[in-house]
User: Which sequence fits this backbone?
């Protein structure tokens, strides 16, 4: 897995967009960017993943820079239930070793 | 739809006692299966993964072992627990194409 760097913590006001950055400057061409989140005392939850193009689903949007060295996860209207640790992982599609770093602790504030 | 079941939710065991945690997946066949551990205040650590019945790969040498007796069953075991085995144990599965992992609800193990 390519090394990823995320800020340790972020705050976001409820109802605002939460933009979580991730740096993966050493990502290789066949590695995807995955995002997971872990709400306290629960198992991680898959959010979204992408290779080159921007992706959107019912939970979030993923914006990947053209050089693929960084990405941003966007939660368009953050709620209190989005308070969690968010993990950015760069890994090959055939990898059996999803390595979780320390992630970003997002606190959504009322 | 696919579901993953993991039990028990919490467990308190004395040092030196055995351990058996079970995980089952429904609604899919030939999943990749994983055991992770999260110590208090720490990150997720991959312990074992399996790509098929009887095929186990260990990532961290320790007094834990894993087995996969059936396609959708993954068991984590120990013959003698240590205090350092305390933590939050998570089972997960993915398709062979590795499109996203689905995690179970976890077992919080406290060794006393």
Assistant:
């Amino acid at each position: 897995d390519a090394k990823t760097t995320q800020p340790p913590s972020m705050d976001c006001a409820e109802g605002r967009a939460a933009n979580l950055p991730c740096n993966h400057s050493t990502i290789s061409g066949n590695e995807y960017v995955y995002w997971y989140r872990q709400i306290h005392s629960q198992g991680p939850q898959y959010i979204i993943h992408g290779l080159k193009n921007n992706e959107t689903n019912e939970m979030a949007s993923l914006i990947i820079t053209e050089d693929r060295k960084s990405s941003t996860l966007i939660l368009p209207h953050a709620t209190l239930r989005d308070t969690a640790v968010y993990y950015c992982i760069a890994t090959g599609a055939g990898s059996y070793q999803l390595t979780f770093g320390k992630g970003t602790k997002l606190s959504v504030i009322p | 739809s696919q579901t993953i079941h993991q039990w028990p939710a919490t467990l308190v065991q004395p040092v030196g006692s055995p351990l058996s945690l079970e995980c089952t997946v429904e609604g899919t066949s030939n999943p990749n299966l994983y055991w992770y551990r999260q110590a208090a205040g720490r990150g997720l650590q991959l312990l074992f993964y399996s790509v098929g019945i009887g095929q186990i790969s260990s990532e961290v040498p320790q007094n834990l072992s894993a087995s996969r007796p059936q396609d959708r069953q993954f068991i984590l075991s120990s013959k003698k627990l240590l205090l350092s085995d305390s933590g939050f144990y998570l089972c997960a599965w993915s398709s062979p194409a590795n499109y996203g992992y689905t995690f179970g609800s976890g077992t919080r193990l406290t060794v006393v």
